[in-house]
Design goal:
It is built from four helices and no strands. The chain is mostly helical and 135 residues long. It has one domain. α2 packs antiparallel against α4. The longest helix is centred in the middle third of the chain and has 50 residues.
Length: 135
């Protein structure tokens, strides 16, 4: 889709007092905006709330909501990074423990070590689920 550009495409003759120094906007009656523009002008002339004032208020509310969501997302990202760093530290410590442990002891306690590793992983998974389900 090409970028919108203003163009001088019409010559408009104002009935009454012509002012040749003014510019205007033309909205053709077969355009979807035609009735909307007439209603906006009628609202302005009748002193009713201007459509764009309401629209601007809505946009500002949505912008505030977006800012709030971005802040929450940023906080979650920081938590995830911290969690990731903790998990990496736990993995390093576990690896160091396992590699420095006597292989005979490790063979004897293999099931216990595996259970502890699975318990740690389950705890991490539960914390992550809780973090996302609480929000």
């Amino acid at each position: 889709m090409s970028e919108f550009k203003r163009e001088k495409r019409y010559i408009v003759h104002k009935i009454g007092k012509p002012d040749w120094n003014k510019s205007c906007v033309v909205v053709e009656e077969d355009w979807p905006e035609y009735e909307i523009v007439w209603n906006m002008i009628a609202d302005r002339v009748n002193g009713d709330p201007y459509f764009f004032d309401e629209l601007q208020a809505t946009i500002e509310k949505q912008a505030a909501k977006i800012a709030e969501l971005r802040e929450k997302a940023s906080a979650h990202l920081a938590e995830e990074q911290q969690y990731g760093q903790q998990w990496e530290k736990t993995q390093r410590e576990l690896k160091q423990t396992l590699t420095s442990t006597d292989s005979t002891w490790l063979a004897e306690h293999d099931a216990e070590v595996r259970r502890k590793v699975l318990d740690v992983a389950a705890g991490v998974a539960a914390d992550v689920v809780a973090m996302y389900c609480d929000t």
